[in-house]
Amino acid sequence: MNMNDCLSKGYLKPDPQAAERIPGSLEVAARFLISARKNLNINEYEMSELASYNTIFHAARALLFNKGYIERSHVCVIVALKELYQQDHDLLELLNTFDKIRITRHNIQYGGSLVKKTEAVFVIDFAEQFLEKAKAMLKTK
């Protein structure tokens, strides 16, 4: 799937007001990160990972909004960001990890997969890194 596929299927749409959603999306991302840490502290590793994933997803949406698009597909967020930010090799690397975490999140949420503490910690750390990268990119626009 590529960005044109996402657009033609309605999974991505241009929206002239998309940038107005950036602050809210970053706030939601930060709140999910807090929730991920709280869940880790009470050994709720699956919930921690789901909250961490939501941190990454909402930070990614903020980057998408910055380019004037809204989404209706988790996959298409990643596909679009890879195309829209193709010159940022650090982000591309992060997006590859995000995609792997997306699959894991799907398996937890819909397949009942369990999560070990080490994995939950990794995803929290990654979510924090992704959120900080997104914030830095959005400050320099």
Describe the structure.
74% of the residues lie in helices and 4% in strands. The chain has helices spanning 3-8, 22-41, 45-66, 74-84, 89-111, 117-139; strands at 12-14, 69-71. A two-stranded antiparallel sheet has the order 1-2. Helix 2 (22-41) runs antiparallel to helix 3 (45-66), helix 3 packs across helix 4 (74-84) and helix 3 crosses helix 5. The protein is globular and about 40 Å long.
Structure, briefly:
With 141 residues, the chain is mainly alpha-helical. The protein has six helices and two strands, in the order αβααβααα.
Q: Would you list the SSEs in sequence order as H and E?
A: HEHHEHHH
Unreliable segments of 5+ consecutive residues = none
Sheet bearing the most strands, described?
A: 2 strands, antiparallel
Q: Work out the strand percent.
A: under 5%
Kindly report the average pLDDT value.
97
Distance between the termini: 28 Å
Q: Please report the total strand number as a whole number.
A: 2
